[in-house]
Write a structure and sequence with these properties.
4 helices; mainly alpha
Amino acid sequence: MTAEQIRHARALLAQPENTIMSIAKLLGVSRTTLYKYVPELAAGRDSLVTGDAPAALPAPR
């Protein structure tokens, strides 16, 4: 995923009406890929709004 796609995913995930599956489809990636590049999802969607999760991104392959 590009940095722009990651920013877009985070912005969409902050809106409760968007599902992880719908965002993955919109971006053309799998849910697994979304979880890989937005690691704060593992802590739950609320962490995206509060900013409690780590901001580190995995290295691109």
